């Protein structure tokens, strides 16, 4: 079993939809949680960073962490075609561990 | 943009040849990382550095070596490239303020 599990998708939604992306993890020692966005043939770009349970909001993006369930989510409101990318969850104590990524397409 | 560049951006080489990838950063970050990204596996850590001449192995270090003789440069070497090392390689730095990492643009390596 991988330490971090992420549904690879692909996920396709219409423009304006609310998108929910999720990861589960097995290592209860993870303390820091991140979401990255990666456009095709580009490097991952940090979207959200949190280290506590609960919600963190930044514009149209909300990161949610539930340490008791070992579950993290990223919500995208009012999704746009420019949100079409692969989204990677990541978490660490020392070494970073990444999910395999979910490919999202937002259709106009 | 965390001031990270990688070179070359693309490389095609043959099995058995040595290959060196370079990561350069301009902001004096102490921690630097090399990852490889493969379909179905996500990003996996190869080696990392926590200072000049200070390096350690990651999850998938076999067949790779690294060197860091200056703060700004972190080199990844494949001593004798194999087809299984065909991948996209990303360099990253760790933020000075926290644990988040920032990535370079990547090097696409093909070993024939």
Any overview of this molecule?
Chain A is mostly beta strands and 108 residues long. Helix content of chain A is 0%, strand content 56%. Chain A contains no helices and eleven strands. In chain B, the strands form two sheets. In chain B, strands 2, 4, 5, 6, 9, 10 and 11 form a seven-stranded mixed sheet that branches. In chain B, strands 1-3-8-7 form a four-stranded antiparallel sheet, with no helix packed on it. In chain B, a hairpin with a 3-residue loop joins strand 4 and strand 5. Chain B contains no helices and eleven strands. Chain B is mainly β. At the A-B interface, strand 4, strand 5 and strand 9 of A face strand 5 and strand 10 of B.
Features:
heterodimer, A: 108 residues, mainly beta, six-stranded mixed sheet, five-stranded antiparallel sheet, 11 strands, 56% strand, B: 112 residues, seven-stranded mixed sheet, four-stranded antiparallel sheet, globular
In short:
The complex is a heterodimer of chains A (108) and B (112). Chain A is mostly beta strands.
